[in-house]
Amino acid sequence: MSDIRRALRRRTLASLAGVAALAAAPKTLVAATRGAGAPDRFEAVDAPNAVPAALRAALEPLRNRAVLVNFWATWCEPCRAEMPALADLDAIETDLALLTVAVADRDGDVRRFFAAHRIDPLVVADPEQVIARAWAVRFLPTTFLLDASHRPRHRIRGELDWNDPAVRERVMTLVAPPNDPTPH
User: What is the pTM assigned to this prediction?
Assistant: First the structure.
């Protein structure tokens, strides 16, 4: 099989997998993704059992900063729609970093998407979905909010309007360091 046919087959299968995941998703999950802002969609989560090496390496330079880890793909329309607002949030909030995980995607497609939108987030390739499986991501987009110690604290499944002031306020409240009760 030629490289072109193999690439087309892989892209078709990835697209079909996305459609199948959406069709198989619980109706409440699908309905939740249609809300514009919905700061109440931040689900508390426990840390995953494992942090794959590629993700751990990408997080290392972001030490002592809260991080939004966004699982997405160029073939996922809701992912494409929310990415510019995520990049804007990353640019505006200095205490917060954006790390994207390109799930079952091709490097060239990812580079072209970011170049076309003139954004440059940190990207971790996850073509075999190793990171997505380790973090139990079954729906795209899915975004995790990590605290400054890089422990996952909240998850948002589905598209979110990251430009919504209520969403931004909720994010910044969740990443704010706890008040130090000891007097100095």
Answer: 0.77
